[in-house]
Design goal:
alpha/beta; Rossmann fold; L-2-Hydroxyisocaproate Dehydrogenase, Chain A, domain 2; 2 domains; 6-stranded parallel sheet; 3-stranded antiparallel sheet; 14 strands; 41% helix; globular; binds adenosine-5-diphosphoribose
Length: 319
Amino acid sequence: MTSRNGKVAVIGAGFYGSTTAQRLAEYDIFDEVVLTDIIEGRPEGLALDMNQSRPIEGFETKVTGQTTGPAGEGYEVLAGSGIVIITAGLPRKPGMSRMDLIETNAKIVRNVVENVVKYAPDAVLIVVSNPLDEMTALAAKVSGFPSGRVLGQAGMLDTARFSYFVAEKLGVPVGSVQTLTLGSHGDTMVPVPSACTVDSKPLYGLLDAAEVEQLVTRTRGGGGEIVGLLKTGSAYYAPSAAAARMARAVASDSGAVMPVCAWVDGQYGISGVYLGVEAEIGAGGVRRVVERELTPSELADLRTAAEAVRAKQSDVASL
Ligand code: APR
């Protein structure tokens, strides 16, 4: 028999939030998955639907949906949550950058975090709302939580996109491909080709520099490519897979090393900023940032990303 424990909450029952809740429930490792939204009835309806999939899929994790009100009504449902994933906020429309969402989503994320802190003061916060690095920094500030207890999802997604593009290009299974992206979830994303391998062979031996650069460019624009096709929203299957895996690493205290948006304090010569780096994830969130050898140009790009993100993160504090 599977042992289940703990409660994980997902704030925002849009595409990203609902698919994340579904994945978490299907892991069948939690007692309860809570899903909330401000749209009356939406989280309750989705929860009912997911619960009705349990006899078919064979999982026992209970899904609870709860509409929340403007003054925080309904947030008591979060009591006892060990992990809270914040997906509330607008997605992009074609032609928009993630940064165009900053003012609107900062207000939403601030309001959400204030309420989360009241009812789940010990939770690990996983932020996915965009612009990601800024919303993670804002959540950390508003919550007052220790920096390791607040992290953002972006690196796993960007890395998965990069891996998929490499696998597709070479016609190999995705499982043979190892890639890495660091930096921001935006224009200053830093794919790290020096850390990329296919069946343990360096990527640079299999593709020439121009081909790698093409895949890197496509990775950097990976979210925008999907927004352009969907026209009415942004990606959620790969994003929710990444967020759910992060939550699982926290829930199982796994110590897995994942690229995430984490507080960087001295690593790579960078301090005092939330940035995409590799980190060891455990029950309390980020156990430690893991520093690896980078080429001089990758390191320079990472430092550039840190400064770009730092400037925006200080703006966001006043939003
Ligand atoms: N509290 C809870 N939910 C909220 C709030 C709030 N204060 N404000 C908005 N929401 C909800 C909306 O009602 C909507 O159901 O957030 C949900 C967002 O869902 P979608 O519009 O489907 O967007 P989604 O694709 O899920 O993306 C959510 O993740 O990838 C990022 O850029 C994306 O910031 C966006 C977020």
